[in-house]
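**Archive record**
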Amino acid sequence: MSRWASSPLGTSASIFFAAIRSGTPVALIATPRTALKCWRKSGWRRIESDPELADFDQIPLTSRDGLSIEAVFVRGTGLVDLQEGMFMASDAPLISFLESADQQRFRFLLDDRSISGLATLSDIQKLPVYSVLFGLVIAVEMLLIDWIRKTCGPNQNAWLDHLNKTQKGSVERHWRDASERNLAIDRLSCASFGQEIQAAQGLGLFKGTETHHERLKSLEALRHQICHAAEIALTPERALTIPNDVRNAHAMASWLQAQIEELQA
């Protein structure tokens, strides 16, 4: 099928990543200040006995009049004084919170000079995060597809030699179905992310760089979860894997772009 529409990478991945960073604020997943479950700082030692707070890992501690937040109770640690690293502007990029959530599990959001909300590790489960993660992973996959196409050159189906018989049959079935509905430009556009990774490995993309292969496999697993609307951060342990996936997506996008530019040089 000949191409009529613009190429997906007609907008560069780097520009797209910058747009994700600038267009999706962390406030989208935060709990507003008015909805926060708080406790008086003077009585913080009684928090553990309050069943209504049992589900919260961080509880803001306020002054006696309840108007200002003076500290935070961190479950398993106790009272923690406010520190510079706990704050983030309410309009800061959501992706900035995701990138560092395994190092700082919560952030008080500032609007002007006041705390306007709280974003925590558990908020990674919220819908805006799915949107950001999907955009990152799809950008990486499109770069991988672009590398495969440029590597194969005139022999556009050479990548198929690195799939087994069953996988080739699956691609062919999807190709026939997509062709009938004008939904595919070539057979590569009918491959799964896992098949694309396998083909790229066979074509030598990861020679001497097994780390990049592992990163892509991790992003493939995340893609499956997102596309099936699975709960990606159901436990703290699962939520703590997301920041690494975000960092991996950035690293892989930059690396793949460099490989593509090298082919074009």
Observations:
- Residues 8-19+127-264 form one domain.
- The mean pLDDT is 92.
- The longest strand covers residues 114-120.
- The chain has two domains: 8-19+127-264, 30-120.
